[in-house]
């Protein structure tokens, strides 16, 4: 079954064999001058080892130690092996992360590179039982400092873009990439960002971003305008989206128009995040053919399944299959919010501000209403068990553009209240039980063809 799923994605079932093959002869970064004392900046030495390995498609490895480094760039054919006892520790100096064209939170712009980059490469592996630690608190603190200046000016929407912080791992414009095994810690921004890429396998990661504080926007795994991606066995605690599907923001995302499609996410544990699985809010390029299964979501994660967008995002989201989730003490089981976080979602330059970054102008481009509303349909949700939840449903869309064709099967929800479903059409509930304190099912308003509740 596992191999069949991998082959459908155009991937090869290489998780265990890759680790075994990568354990052979390797080029030691230490031979190029890398020092694992936790203080020496090793960027040039590690990059030199990578460049040598790229000549023959070799593996780069390390003696046990803690290796402080800025951005490193893996190249086609190279395996980066981080054995147990090896830590890559991110520099706290933003100058050690060179800026390059990328996409950040749905907008194409020039931004600092990640700590570990697979940038426009092919056939790259990052494997092993070691650790990649972003040491990101200095970047978290810089964000909160900027927020204190921006929030009174109505610039919450700009803070994520103006406060430049390195992601932990970026896979951009690449193919046939495997990331399997390492422990990921304290990302300065998003932890794993897969963007404009395909045939990607992300597996067996332990992500911990709430050590020494709660890092803002420290998403776990973001899949962004990419296709044929398998994500499995991720154990995550972060301070934003744990597992997130994205495809661009507003006018810029509509211009790029690259969907996220043919994605499998399975057998993951979410211990602390903003939701178990999130679709959006960057929906502009659209999503389709997404399969989510085998997720366990724990308190204090507030939402089990979250769809979010905004009136300026647009995009079509369809053919989503979610199954086999266990939710423990979450606040809300299933939420659809297409007017999410207005202070962040709707960019507006304050009157009198003229000397602004070019991407501010991009973010404030007008999106006509007929293009700006997300269309969400054909969602299948089955075999969901929730214990100790507060609300089953918090759902709303647009009266003239309802949420079409949702099918729920075998729900077993122990909740305080059924909640509310609005703007739905042709929703079906089969073999589903929603136990509430007052014995009432979810309230259904401005909807038609909702059956089985």
TrEMBL record:
This is Glycosyl hydrolase family 28 protein. Belongs to the glycosyl hydrolase 28 family. InterPro entries: GH28_Enzymes, Glyco_hydro_28, PbH1, Pectin_lyas_fold, Pectin_lyase_fold/virulence. Keywords: Glycosidase, Hydrolase, Signal. Residues 1-22 form the signal peptide. It comes from Caulobacter segnis. SMART domains: PbH1 (SM00710). GO terms for molecular function: hydrolase activity. The keyword Glycoprotein does not apply. It holds the Pfam family Glyco_hydro_28.
């Amino acid at each position: 079954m596992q191999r069949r799923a991998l082959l459908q994605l155009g991937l090869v079932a290489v998780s265990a064999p890759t680790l075994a093959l990568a354990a052979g002869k390797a080029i030691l970064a230490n031979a190029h001058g890398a020092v694992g004392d936790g203080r020496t900046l090793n960027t040039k030495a590690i990059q030199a080892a990578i460049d040598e390995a790229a000549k023959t498609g070799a593996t780069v490895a390390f003696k046990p130690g803690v290796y402080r480094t800025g951005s490193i760039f893996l190249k086609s054919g190279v395996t980066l092996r981080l054995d147990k006892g090896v830590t890559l520790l991110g520099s706290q100096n933003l100058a050690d992360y060179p800026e390059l064209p990328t996409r950040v939170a749905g907008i194409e712009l020039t931004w600092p590179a990640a700590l570990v980059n697979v940038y426009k490469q092919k056939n790259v592996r990052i494997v092993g039982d070691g650790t990649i630690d972003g040491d990101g608190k200095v970047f978290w603190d810089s964000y909160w400092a900027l927020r204190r200046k921006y929030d009174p000016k109505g610039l919450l929407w700009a803070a994520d873009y103006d406060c430049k912080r390195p992601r932990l791992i970026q896979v951009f414009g690449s193919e046939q990439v495997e990331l399997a095994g390492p422990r990921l810690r304290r990302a300065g921004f998003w932890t794993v960002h897969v963007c404009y890429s395909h045939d990607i396998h992300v597996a067996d990661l332990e992500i911990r971003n709430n050590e020494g504080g709660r890092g803002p926007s420290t998403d776990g795994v973001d899949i962004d305008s990419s296709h044929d991606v398998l994500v499995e066995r991720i154990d995550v605690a972060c301070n934003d989206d744990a597992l997130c599907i994205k495809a661009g923001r507003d006018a810029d995302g509509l211009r790029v128009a690259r969907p996220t499609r043919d994605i499998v996410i399975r057998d993951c544990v979410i211990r602390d995040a903003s939701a178990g699985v999130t679709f959006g809010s960057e929906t502009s390029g659209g999503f389709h053919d997404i399969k989510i299964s085998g997720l366990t979501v724990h308190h204090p994660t507030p939402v089990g399944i979250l769809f979010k967008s905004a009136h300026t995002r647009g995009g079509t989201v369809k053919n989503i299959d979610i199954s086999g989730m266990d939710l423990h003490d979450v606040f809300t089981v299933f939420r659809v919010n297409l007017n999410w976080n207005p202070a962040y979602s709707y960019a507006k330059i304050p009157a009198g501000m003229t000397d602004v970054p070019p991407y501010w102008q991009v973010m404030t481009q007008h999106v006509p209403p007929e293009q700006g509303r997300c269309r969400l349909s054909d969602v299948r949700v089955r075999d969901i068990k929730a214990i100790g939840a507060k609300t089953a449903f918090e759902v709303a869309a647009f009266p003239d553009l309802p949420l079409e064709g949702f099918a729920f099967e075998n729900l077993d929800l122990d909740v305080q209240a059924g909640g509310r479903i609005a703007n739905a059409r042709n929703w079906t509930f089969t073999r589903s039980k929603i136990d509430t304190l007052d014995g009432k099912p979810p309230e259904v308003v401005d909807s038609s063809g909702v059956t089985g509740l």
